[in-house]
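--- STAGE predict ---
source: upstream dedup step, 1 unique chain passed
mode: sequence only
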Amino acid sequence: MFQVWVGPAQKLEGMYVTAETGPVQDAPEEERDDGLPGAGRAQGALAEVVGRVRAAQALLDRPLTSYYLIAGITTLLLCLGLVMVLSTSSVVDLANGVSPYRDFMVQLIGIVVGIPVLLIASRSQPRLFRAAAYPLLAVSIIGLCLVLIPGVGQQANGATRWINLGGPLHFQPSELAKLALAVWGADLLARKEKLGMLTDWRHMLVPLLPGTGILALLVMGGNDLGTTSILLIIFLALLWIAGTPGRVFATLLILMGLVLVLLMVAEQYRSQRLLMFLSNSPANSNPLGQNMQAIQGKYALGSGGIFGVGLGASREKWGWLPESTSDFIFAVIGEELGLVGTLCVTALYGGLAFAGLRVARRVPDTFSKLLTAAITIWIVGQAVVNIGAVIGVFPITGVPLPLVSQGLSSVLVTMLGLGMLMSFARREPGASQALAARGAFPWGRPLSWLSRGSRHRG
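--- STAGE serialize ---
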């Protein structure tokens, strides 16, 4: 008999060898890999997954993660916006008897001008933003007053929002008012926090509440309820980050909701929109009736399927979907790029929310924290309102999709706000050292003078 001392049982070259019987059979399938049972291999796979998750967390914890996320998401949304504006506006331009590239060229000009603005803002210091708080607020108020002067303000779709700069170029002061409120409110609350005045909720509201009210009244003077709602979102974001007591915040939220409802029912066309949103009456299901925009937007999303009908192949943009280049461009994205495209766009705004709030949590000073959170909530909140109106979750309010919808003022102001976010992201703990170790990009060297002061102080 074959005798060998190997213990009670030992695997040898795929065979089991025992002291009593020698080689008897092949190893069972579930015990072949290194002698580990199935449960052991499952634990090994789980450990590998946990290791990869920890590696991803370590990657997200790097100092420049927020900076690169904001820069990358901004680039992707701008490119998507250019493509979709070209796809949708060419049809409208042809119908109006002008060049099919007119609106696309205006959008391209806005982005070309906005890129150096974004880069300069990203290399600027917070004290420059604080110094610009009151000038931005003053320019916004003056612009909103000019819009209300007959012959100066340009009206479209029942709203007076624009000042004609000549040709196809228009400036919308209400877009600048969003950024002005965020910067001014953050500077105001930061000063009061330094003086220890934010322990009293009344100091939180005065003069922030009256200032917001003035901007909102001027915007509503032009029948722009959508921008008014975004201003109120920015105001609430500032108060929330500043630590307003829950009872005060809830009271303000209820009061502002009631004010928005009253503003909706004050105008006939807005009250009709609200009733059509709340009602399931068959009269509201006519795709060519008063509810045409909402219905055709859902048709566009539904006809896109999983992967869409193809870039440029939308049928709804051929006169069926009003405001396809601005308020309802997300519906055309769903038709041409399908569910996959809409999920990618939604994920980009989700990534922007993650990066912006991460910066707000990590920056050291109160002003940076307040302004970062306000800008992030403004841009992402506006995207939520726009997408929600297209899919039927919210009433139609007429706000553009940030960086994607057509609009010169919108894209310029949004890029300036994102440049401020990138500036704060550069001031996260360890970010300046990581940037110094990486070295300046060629396009960043001419702008390096803007941040020399902070480097010397560090």
